[in-house]
Amino acid sequence: MKYLIIGGSAAGVACAETLRKHDKSSEIAVISDEVFPLYSRCLLTYLLAGSIDESKLYFKDKTFYEDNNIKFYLCKKAVSIDRKEKSITLKDRTKISYDKLLLATGASPKLVDVPGIDKKGVFTVRKIDDARSIMKMLNKVERIAVLGGGLIGLRDAYALRQRGKEVAVIVKSPQVLSQMVDKQAASLIAARLEKNGIKIMTGLAAKEIIGKEFVEEVLLDNGEKIKCQMIIIGKGVKANTELAASCGLKVEEGIVVDEFLKTSDENIFAAGDCAQTYDIARGERRINALWPCAVEQGERAALNMLDKKIKYDGSLSMNSVDFFGLASISMGVTKPKEEKDYEIISQVKNNIYKKFVLKENVIVGMVLVGDIKPAGIISILIKNRIDVSSIKHLLLDDNFDYAKIMPLVAKYKDKFKLEECKDTIITY
Amino acid sequence: MSEKHIQRSYDPASQKMIKKAESDNVKIAWDRYDAMQPQCGFGELGLCCKVCNMGPCRIDPFGEGPQEGVCGATKDTIVARNLTRMIAAGSAAHSDHGRDIAHTLLLAARGQTHDYKLKDTEKLKKVALLYGIDINGKSIEKIGEELGEKCLSEFGQQEGELKMTKRAPAKRLALWRKLGIVPRGIDREVVEIMHRTTMGVDNDYKNIINHGMRTALADGWGGSMIATELSDILFGSPKPIRATVNLGVLKEDQVNIVVHGHEPTLSDVVQQAAKDPELVALAKKYGAKGINLAGMCCTANEILMRHGIPSAGNFLQQELAILTGAVELMMVDVQCVMPALSVAANCFHTKLVTTSPKCKFPGVEHVEFKEERALEIARNIIRMGVENFKNRAKERIEIPKEIRGLVAGFTTENTFHILGGKYRATFRPLNDAIISGRLRGAAGVVGCNNPNIRQDWAHVSMVKELIKHDVLVVQTGCSAIACAKEGLLTPESAFKLAGRGLQEICQAVGIPPVLHVGSCVDNSRILIILSQVIKEGGLGEDLSDIPVAAAAPEWMSEKAVAIGFYAVASGVYTIFGTPQPVLGSENVTNYIAAELENIVGGKFAFEADPIRAAQMMIKHIDKKREALKLPPLMYEREPVRMTNND
Amino acid sequence: MTKDLLKKKKTKDIKIYCDITKCVGCRSCEIACAVEHSKSKDIFSAIKEKALPKKRVKAENINNKIISLHCQHCEDAPCIKACMSGALSKDEKTGATLQDKDKCVGCWMCVMSCPFGAIVQDVENHIAVKCDLCPDREDFACVAACPTGALFVGTKEEFEKKVKKK
Fold this sequence. Notes:
The structure holds 3 protein chains of 3 kinds. Chain A is α/β, with parallel strands linked by helices. In chain A, about 25% of the residues lie in helices and about 30% in strands.
């Protein structure tokens, strides 16, 4: 067997590692178009903030590929796939054949269509090169505007504020993190950011980036001008589907896969930020471009490339942020559209916000701000679709912990897929 | 691991029996201690409160969990309440003992028992005068009756001051009055602790501890002092006496009876009964050469002090005595009697007999002791032992050879006789010895054994370090026995181990450098000695001025906490080996280990290393010498090297 | 349990179980854990350390059922998948879920994904804290501290056999 993986980040590496764990002899190759191997994209904002250096960017040992006898192509971009011949071609015209192929091509930052976006000092933060370029310029910069008040925009803003810069975030929506949390949570988080010197400007968009060669200011749609020497575009990502589409695989928002993470070609699989998978909480197909989902999908795709036929239950969107000591976690459906179909259990107390979204007594979403302790426990209730009617009254309890769900584990033993849950109730 | 017995005890006799316990497969205190590890951190720190049913509450010492109980009690409150309840228990134990002695005195004076007499009539008169009894023209019995009544009434007294507190120097009494801690009655203070520390009463830790001191004073200057003084009257005041100590006092060819516990009422008649010719004859009939009586713990100290009855050992040797396989009978009264004794006794032929209605063991024969028929009951118990001789399993007998001579029987009265020489019955020589720098000062080293520290090692090491630096040591209880086993309670040890100044004193008057003053209630003797030192003059006006210190290096009992607190409240710097369960509250710890010095002149320190603790005591003694502007020590060859900074 | 049994260390099959029927909630495991992870490893000193040691085990209850719960070292560990800094990894030999503190950036992704709530935030140091199976000792501090024998080290079969005996 020859396994080929396009993409050397979370999904690709998890796939390669899992393949090697189960198949000690086959040829495994990973192709990456990056200049730096095995770095964690999520750590780039920590690098920007100065809290880690480049040596800490690795999420696996530097010798991971050697140790696992995996062929690794650095700085190589796959440009086409020949599904009949079962081979791919790199930009340098090299052809590599495969028996099973994983597309873990990831995603790219969404850009904004604003005049002046080509000026020097406008960045996105997706790759290590982006971070390096920003840092090179940073000492000449005092004021920075971040376009986008989602997770990416705020993380970038937080990182740069930690460098002591004047940071303003321009948010199109009426609230920050509109994809992730509700208004209540957003206001707590925004307040914490503002208290620590990040200016949050909601309901506004950039109209033009002004400057000669370099960025000098940004004009907003209300006519206001903000002086800045750097602009970060933090507007979220879009799946890299071009390669898949070019060879005729089924592509919607992302590469469409079945419950075995297989594309419309039985020898080609997809995982990670480029794959459109089933969302457990929402009950629909969607991209959850998140590190834990990518790892899990990479592993699961590997098992199916090994022909083990193990279903992927789907992904759960979940995010964790910590700004200036205010930790927040969201999961699943946090802002149901049709409120009447859902039950909301929530509470704000001493700047701690908890919200649970239930549908027919099953938790489908959660927001925690300020106290994130119960997050993981809730995650298995969501993932395993557990009827929580008997412990509903405990959800807002300050002391909510695993013991509180033990009666459920005992009652719905078979629904809890994690074996270790069963170990805890042997004597229950 | 084969060295376990050596790690557990410093005493070779105990080491042998610990080894025997292992081969006989008998679990002893050290095994249970090991099995108990690790012990509860909340308890060690004093942070567990179970005074009400909203609890138990525990304060998380790591700050993550609850910082107050359900009622809102903070760690300061909880620690102070727990600690003070220990004082209540300790004071109650000593004082209840005192009450029983007073009761016996009354029975003897009224002629309701013929087995006790008022032996020390001189002391009877002295104490009666102290209690304001007009002794003129009254018979001894009448005085005894009135004193017994007066003493007994102090237990239930509600107002006023305990009479014995008048024996303290005027300045001390004035300070106690100013602080409002002169004990009013003995039981009252104990009851008040229980009231104050119950749910929803006192939560000012200083206020709680101050009342703890008042209660402790009711012990030291009340219950314990009554026990000591009335025991002297009833059983005779001790006089210096030679005796022997350690498990080697048990005899292979005799009926061995061990009397264990605390009160002298039982042991004193038992020592009479053991000489009963009829019983001795019976013993011979069973093939024994005679009846050998030995003591254990403080009841041993009572009959050792007065009759020279040998002591088989201290607290951690109670099970070991049974392990020799040579003890026919062990009779116990109250306090420090391990419930495990019945298990050990069951492994051998030893008959265990309880005698106090306050202390029974399930499944153990109870022969209730009554003062009215004391001798008869004592004879019956001894007969049980004699008859048990035939049940010995000879092959299981192993008596360690270790035995040491000692001199015991020192008291307030005879100590100054001794120090003053035959013709100068005064404290002057003692005071002069300190003033001149021949003696650095004095230290009381007292207290228990505890498996958490190598048995006897801390007592012996501390006392050696003290006498080496010319500190005269007075001892009571299990600590005295520990040092006796090491031979420190003989005049000869002065020449080997004491500093030159102390050597000269010991040589001049023929005393050991370490003086055994009795059982744990007899710590009250030390208070009187100190008061006499002040009265004699030249060493300040208050107890806290005297260059002295105290220590309980191997403490385990609540009684030790009560003693510690009356020592501190009397102005004495007092070191405990392992800490009292107070470290969970920085405030309480700081209060008792620092702030109290400015309030009552004494304070606590916790130091498990006995040498370091001794050095801290020496440093304190030197501080007091300096404050009195006393000259440097006469024979200080080199300054004492301090290895720690207090 | 004899002291020798306590000395078992984690392997793929051996782990720490809690017998809910025997746990009295004394929290001795918590104390022992915090002390074991202190600088001094002595309770009297540990409570005075500047950075107070963090416990990694918690006595939790529902009604009268109490469990001493810590990281279950899941075979298919959600926390490892969630860890984007590479701080968490699986020791393939012992099955232990290990943490490299130097690599942890405090993103709380593991907190978010641990089904047991067994990974907690060390806010002062801004890193996640979890059971490390007591690398400095032969046994486990929590198990050794358990006064009722509720905590048990062994295989699942051994544990089931033990609790069935009653």
